[in-house]
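Lab meeting prep.
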Amino acid sequence: MKGKLFLFLLIWSGLCYGQKPALTLDSYKRWPEVTGGGLSGNGQFAFYTIKNFPVGKSTFVLKTTDGKELFSCINFNNPRFGFNSRYLYGILEVDTLLIYDTRNKTQKKIPGVSNYELVSITGQERLVITEKQRTLKIIDEFGNRLFTFSSINYYKFGPSGKKLFIEQPDNTSSRSVICSWIDMATGKGKIIYKGETTNSVIFDGEENQAAFIASDTAGNNIFYYNSHADSAVLFIHKQTEGIAADLAIEKGQYWSFSKDGDRIFFSLDKQSESKNKDMPPELEIWSYEDAFLRSYYNGMVGKAMLQVRSYLSTADIRTGKVLQLIKGDQRVFANSLQYNTDSIFLVISSYGLNTEDWNKNATSSFYLCNTKTGKQIPLEINRKETLAPVISPSGKYILYFDRSLGNYICFNIATNVKENITESIHASFLKYFNQHYPRPDVSVVGITGWVKNDESVLINTSYDIYKVDPLNFDKPVNITQGIGETKKTVFYLAGQPLGSIVGSNNGKVLLSAFNTKNKNYGFYEADVLHGNQDIRKLNMGAYFSGHIDDIYYQLDDENFIVAKNSAGYLLRWEQADKSPNYYFSKDLRNFTPISDMRPENAYNWLTAQLCEYKDSLGGHYQGILYKPENFDPNKKYPVIFNIYETKSNGLNAFIKPGLAGTNFNISLLVSNGYLVFLPDIRGIVRAPGEGALRSVLAAADYVTKFEYVDEKKLALVGHSFGGFETNYIITHSNRFAAAISGSGISDMVRLATAIWIPGQSQQWFTQYSYLMMEKPVVDDPESYFRNSPLLNAKKLGTPVLFMHNDGDENVSYEQTQAFFIVLRSLLKPCWWLNYKGYGHGVGGEKNQLDYNTRVWQFLDHYLKDQPMPDWMKEHI
């Protein structure tokens, strides 16, 4: 396999010496991609997979982290390193378990295995194998069989693998099952239950107790088992005291034992009665006093959240007493019930959508609930603003951002005292790219993490991170030392989940950094324990990974893997002209290439250039200019402008060839002689169309200053919000020779009064999101008319291709239908592609090929003077 991989790379590199071919619409079929990286816990070994190499298959590669290849094969699935880093496991082809010993460089194959699970059983690394005959086998890391269990319906291990619960059919009854409790130290077990089929078994932390659900004609029953008992007992049922007749037992979202093992959390569900139960089923009555639009109440979300109420409850193991913790319109707020702090959780009480400011029902009240007593302490009552309170890891504080104050409030659970703990921080806590919105305070960056024992909390501003004392005794400390604000660099937590405990490594905290000016990305190391220690830059460069153009984004396990004990890092870097590949680093300063797949070297690829320019009012903008690798400054090139909002943050992103379901594939068109420009758009409140027009004309003025640009061959392409911008611009400017508008808005009034598929109004979105209309239609109808391209259709002078599918659940296809009907009546050159039944973009390979072909032909006709394709000539 090593020889084939080397030969492949040699052939591709050899192609680079001749004239490179352009990409074609089917280049993606042969395009390999490096993905699926893994790193051993000791940081000594790494693996990755090359998808679509050879074509239609994948190649798995295992290496040492100094770059030496150990093993490679075709179609190796579900690879995992063992806990001690010595063994690599995975499924070869479809039904063979392979165990690779990295120490001895040996392999062992076990046929007939289609899936496996790596678990810790009594502190030992073990493999759990399920076979087609429902046989469960447990083997050691050498492949030796330890235990076998036959005819398994269902199984589950305890948290540390000391105990195993299995369900098997009862051969004496077609309706019954047998459940056994297995001690994994010996493999011996005992039957603890015979009866109806079970599900959802849970263990306590010590694995001395278990609970599961079994159903009968009356509903669900909860059975309880203690390892000192002979069998499981019926614990909670429909007639248990404390359960109302109209409530049903369900496991709910928080089905678990409490941390102390004394209680079980479960749910009591209630089906709401119809408000119009005496009305004919065909009739639906809407009232202006409804807390919700009837479409929302009867929609998917409404039925799940409003018509069925789930009430968190507990059952005391010792007494069997059931305590219903929430009632009425109350809900558990945002997963606030956590295992380590399960004596408390947050309750939200609301009945109405907070996106309807005028609605008297659209308020929320928050409470702190004690799970042992059910007592609720008011936190905030009848608030219009959206709050997002969180409980600190040790359960000492509740922290939330108060939009009306623009600051974080900390509630001390021990004293019931609230404090504004960020009042002295003179920086915005909002995402920088949304601060021009009419209501930017809904875009809070959020909490970074907590120092041990809740001693302090790290809070993100737009750019920097502050360490804040929850008791408000000590002044906040900027641990990024103002570098973020000064250099417009966004710092964000890296390598561990947001909101977790940070600084466990001698106070060191790893941060990602994205410079919004030059688009460089990298890592810094800050200190949260030792006073004003200098923040240390580890690495910054012209790299891209994952979705970092979203800025406030943590790299996922596909792109950034941290070895145990920080023994090393595996990163997947890319650049505009370099495919994603994996690199290993011990310190995030020096990097060793692990993979080196460069399919772009065989084609006429592209370059990306960051451009800076001003608009007519002196406003500063950025954009990306893509040129083909064989760019000749003495030629004249057509330019395609692709628009949405902020695009320039993707400067270093690698755009692999493929069939686009929206807009177009940049690499494909650039490779074939187009220039592509991605301008940033700066919206204007109550004038989003004018903001887009000014931004795009500034970009066009900038680009057409270059001699190599054909100023008469400019095209504009946008999708969704970009489709609206395209519609507006081409009805207010004749600068463009062609335009493509996908799933765009043409009638702002129709949009603001439309309904999303879940059933809620689009009014709030129209006022406060991308479109920034700020006021409702009735308060400012002129702005809605002025920003509706439909009403300016007479001025359109640009041939336009629409793509809008009748299954679109984001923007109604009637927006394009109405625009098209008006333009057709005006004899304006326009075409509309409707891939029937599809949604906000084109789905399915066949349809996408068709769409990409027509887009290319349309652009070639108007920008390269190619003959008009037949489909543009044909009509009924």
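Slide two material, second protein:
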Amino acid sequence: MEPSPPDDSSVETGCLASTTTSPITPGTGNIGSCSSRSDSRQFPNAPSAHVRLAQHHHAHPHPGCILPSSVPTPGQANKDQEARNHLQLIPRVSAADTQSDAKVEEIRTTPLFTHHVRMVMETGRGPLAAGGSVSDIFQQYALLGVRERTYGSRHPDMSNTLSVEQNLVYANMNAPWSVFLCGSQGAGKSHSLSCLLENSLLTSSLAGNNPNPLAGLVFHYDRFTSYESTQLCEAAYLCSASVQVRVLVSPSNVHTMRKLYRHLPGLPAAAPRPEVIPLYFQEHQLNVSRLMTLMAANGEKAAPLYMEVLFKILRDMSTESRGEGRLDYLDFKQRLARQAFSAQQRTPLGMRLALLESFLAHKQQSEQSTARLNRLFNSAQGTLTIVDLSCPFVNENDACALFTICLSLFMEHRGDCGRIIALDEAHKFLTQSGEAEKLTEQLTSIVRQQRHLGTRIIIATQEPTLAPSLLDLCNVSIVHRFNSPAWFEVLRRHLAGAHLCHDHRDAALFEMIIGLKTGQALVFCPSAMLDASAEEGVRRLNDAFIRIQIRNRVTADGGRSILASDDMQGIEREDIPMEELIVPFSAATRSVKAVARPKRLTSDRQNHDSTDASSPAAKNDTDTQPSLRDNRVRLMSEDQDEEFVDALSSTGTDDTQPSVPDNAARSPSTINDHGPERRYPLRTSPARAIMPSPVPAVAEPVPQAVASASRPRLALASAPAKSVTTRSRTKISQDVASVHVREAITALLKDRPNTLKFTAVREQAARSAGLPEGFFTSTEIWTKWSRRKIRELVVSIFLYIRLASVD
């Protein structure tokens, strides 16, 4: 029988093609040969081109093939040498080796795997890359839960044949992944989020092994209404495992959030507490993109006309900065002030600037405050930063804009260590607004580049309808119990395992989701490695899904009592260390305008004259900053009259309300036995040396009785002297009480300049005013007033000292 003509496929590549009948000599350079693993990776001296052509020559060459001559010319020899050099760049790997390496890489980067697959790999029954070891495949892992059943698989369900230990499901912490969590309130969504954060941040625990922990960032927002209804971020309980937790909150709600987070319900008494810090951005952190985000420049579909002027100013400043990216905010405001905006345009522009300045720190800060600001987004391994913008003055649009800037700052230092970013209760702020869309775009970009950025993303929300694009990109979807058919339709369109269910299987899947117990979830992860067989080896989950029971937390569990309890109402506020005070940009502007810095004079009279804020000299010496906002807050009004207290209250007076009496209080140090007492002005006190304020002119010389007093006191109005020894002061005006509170703060700061206690200030102020020590806590009105006044005065005194030292 004559040989049949060659197949077209065998001669497609010309004379280099060979058939199965052609002899192949090992080591001759045939790329398609299947040699041993060791031989296939070696490059022996290759023969010349004409010899190779002869070896690969087919008995029936292609008609168009031109064979070289058997004797090469000198030019052909040089070309052969060049070809041999180029051949060194071609990897000599067989097809079997290529498939094995790809399989190992797929297993190494899988988001989820079982103990069964792990044992298969460690016993050598699975694929292994050339030159690799079993320990290199699963280096960092932590337990997520236990598989209960597998659904929708073309293969038999192995969960029933494997032991419980072999069905344990682990999260691969060595490879980037993204997780989408959804479910109704109370179904275990936040619990699963906390378990994933534990797996990422704890170095070693009962849950697994994580020698290189990540740095975490969690976004949380809740419409703040009261202590009882505000939902805190459950991830804060990781501090019970000695994880350094830093909570950044809105400056307008910092004291309330400090109280809530420092007294988390259910947290062990000996456990460390989260560190609560007001969220402030430094001016050097502002660039064109962040400034536009903070001013909501991209938050509207049709931007107003004045925003075009703002864009032009930012473009000019960006050009002048020569690519540095940073902006001078004061220069920006000055350029805005020179624009001819109408009154209708200035109002919304002023509101946007007010939002910006409320989260902008002043340039002049103490060393401790500056260091604290610099550390806000410099997260180290095993640390967690929570940005909780729950505040009655921050809406969801503002929260998304601030989250976008925080995310940008957090990702600037991603080279230090791996990152994990979580959105807790995302349905509360990921709305359809422009700010939310910008945040979604930034998260989508990170998910697309998660392997290059080394970042993990977790999105926990009740409604899967908010961000379908994120649902499409996340490679792990964990579905807890919910009852909404609309949510199920979204999942069915975006999840492969749910999309393949039709008709009666659709209804069965929805019933399965409704019937999930708390802590149970369905996991959709096509790249998960959960089973292995002798025929196929380790295989992917593909379009199947599993039901899993999420593990218990290894840190304190705050899910059952996340709402603040009524017992917290009696907790006293924390002390305010001076180094924790950060001067905001807006408050600094108002305070500096209201108070002039005194010149260093020697006498009290000179100091009094220099502190008159209404004088031209004081106005010239005032450090002002351009602002579009009204100066409405003053430390002490410039036209304020001197107030006095009533020493003798009549019977039946309501002592629980602050009052402004007409008479003055009595003091034993100013009693005159020879007649009615005379009215004297308030002398300069140590508090006025720090916080100057206008006082009435001195009308008469101070009597010796007052001059020799141990401390300056308010002068007394005319009143019968006999009542002073039998009756005690029971009411005082708020303006006069402010003077005593300020003097108490000054005196206490001299003794302990770093810490100030509310109780000590109240008692000191009450004693100096001749009131009972518990007067400022006797009623709720005075308690709240004194608390607010102490905070205001401490910040003002601190700012004034800083400005005076700079001057």
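Talking points for slide two:
The two ends are 109 Å apart (CA to CA).
Residues 780-806 form the longest helix (27 residues).
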